[in-house]
What does this fold into?
Amino acid sequence: CTSPDMQLICGQGDLFSAPGTHFCEVGLVGHIQASPGYVTLKSKDPLEHPRVEPHYLSASVDIQRMAEGLKVASEIYKQDPDMFGLDYISTSLGWEEAAVKEFVLQVTHTIWHPVGTCKMGPRSDPLAVVDERLKVYGTQGLRVADASIMPVIPSTNTDQPSRMIGYHLADLILEES
It folds into this structure.
């Protein structure tokens, strides 16, 4: 992989600290996932919520990548223990591979940057939902301009690419008027 596959984010928090103490918390964001998820309809009822099956960490390579990221985060913690607070990972888990992987499975959660649920493609593609002008097939006046049209998650947060898609749609609409 030539793109970054992990992002370290820092924020003020107290996830693993004693009540009333604060420190800088480092979080990991895995940008490249091998675990495929999907969204499907449960029924023909448009008011029924869709079935969302994210399958987080179903591929062992994703668990391994997060475990390696935890080791990097631990090294960062060691740079300034007073700023980062308790080095929870190395003091409570040690570095036994099985324990670190179990920790990953227990604490990993989404940061809600799903992509790829609304495929763009030609009408001949049975999985395509929108065309190259972001129009939803089989509808009038409905377009999609968000991260759902991205075929894969980019190696970055999805807010800026989503804004670019929105700006592109604005240009498309202006061209048509």
